[in-house]
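seq as requested:
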Amino acid sequence: MRPGTSVLVLVMLFPALIECQTCSSNTYLQSSGCVNCPTNSVSAPGSTLVTQCICRAGYNGPHGGPCSPCTFVSATLTCGGTCACSPMTGTGGTITDGPGAYQYLASCWWKITSSAVISWRFTMFDTEADFDKLTIYACTNTLCGTGKVLLGKCSGTSGSGWQGEVPPSNSIWSSQPASGRGTLSLEFYSDSSMNFEGFEGTWSIPNEAIGVCSSPTLCVADSYYSFTGTVGCQPCSSHSSSAAGSMAIEACVCNA
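struct tokens:
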């Protein structure tokens, strides 16, 4: 072999050695070797491009990053009147007329607004039947002055069996954002005689992301995340299965 030939052979072989290298999960191949995916992104074993790194669960962004935390739908609660009042923004909470028996001549309101469906459920209800009432509306705007639909009018006590118009313990009232009624309104009024424990209940909205917020870690069992062809979660072939969150077709193994 002529002098210098061995050096030439190594230089010619080096790219091939790099190309034959298989990178592990959450990395991809560059000319310098395997490098980590961008922050908050993941990849399948054997990835060769940065665009095969996609945002992990709870993050959103283009393939290859950058990945930012997803934003989620929230609801805004406003309230006023003579009852306990704690305005807030979030995905759920508790509403009550206050501790102990409610006031005489109480006049209170709570309004919850969101683009998601708002659900309300009573956890306790005890008022003077037919006189002290909580009314529930679905409204087209936060003022609830017009365009509102009556969902329920609740009144009564459970002292010796239900009386009046008390709500069943498993009843759920919901706003109607698909029909333009994205505000749920609760209004409570009492008269000047006989006061009871009042009411308490909880409201909530689904945990919905704003825009796209998906990840291969969300693929269910017996499926895998495909980075090529039809990108996304794909089912394993017949008579094979995989664990939830699988990121390569090789994770689908034949059933016993």
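The chain is about 5% helix and 35% strand.
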